[in-house]
Amino acid sequence: MNWGIAHLIANGSASEQQSEICVRIMKSLFLKTDKEGGDPYEAMLEQSNTLRQDMGHSLAEIAFNRRTRSLITSINNSPKETIVKERRDARKYSVKRSHDWQSRKLSELDIGQSVFFQHVEGQNWRLGKVTQYFSGGRTEWRHLP
């Protein structure tokens, strides 16, 4: 049976390559179920219940915040919550580190320094001057005519 999937491989970024891997996995899953005469929806259910190595949970467990039903019986030997929390925190830190790799700390603003700010009533940027500091790092500025 032809599922209408034409898989073209592109030489792109890492995220494009990862999506290509996902397409390849799902295509092979559909072809296997078609060859064996199985239900492709059951195969997709089992794919979403497959545990991720870095998190210790499946995508369905992460989405629903609980273990979901599966056609394959398994022994519940999931890691303790502290280990899962450590893995989740490590994953969050890894994502944050890769996102923030080019960020830098901004310099302090001086009173009387000219700044541009986005006006509340529209999308236009306006020129202003810093007039004073408030607690919590907030700054007040005035619009220049």
Strand order of the largest sheet: 1-2-3
Largest sheet: 3 strands, antiparallel
Oligomer kind: single chain
Total helices: the number is 4
Find the structural class using helix and strand composition.
alpha+beta
What portion of the residues fall into strands of 2 or more residues?
5-15%
Straight-line distance between termini: 70 Å
Into which percent range does the helicity of residues fall?
A: 25-40%
Radius of gyration: 26 Å
The overall average pLDDT, rounded, is 77
Encode the helix/strand succession as letters: HHHHEEE
| Overall outline | elongated
Give me the count of strands.
Answer: 3
Which regions are unreliable across 5 or more consecutive residues at pLDDT < 50? none
Describe the SSE topology.
Layout: H1 14-36, H2 40-48, H3 59-64, H4 81-99, E1 114-118, E2 125-133, E3 139-143
Antiparallel strand pairs: 1-2, 2-3
Care to describe what's here?
- This protein is of the alpha+beta class.
- Among the domains are: 9-76, no CATH class; 114-143, no CATH class.
- It is built from 4 helices and 3 strands, in the order ααααβββ.
- The chain has helices at residues 14-36, 40-48, 59-64, 81-99, and strands spanning 114-118, 125-133, 139-143.
- Strands 1-2-3 form a 3-stranded antiparallel β-sheet, with no helix packed on it.
- A hairpin with a 5-residue loop joins strand 2 (125-133) and strand 3 (139-143).
- The longest helix has 23 residues, at 14-36.
- The model has no long low-confidence stretch (mean pLDDT 77).
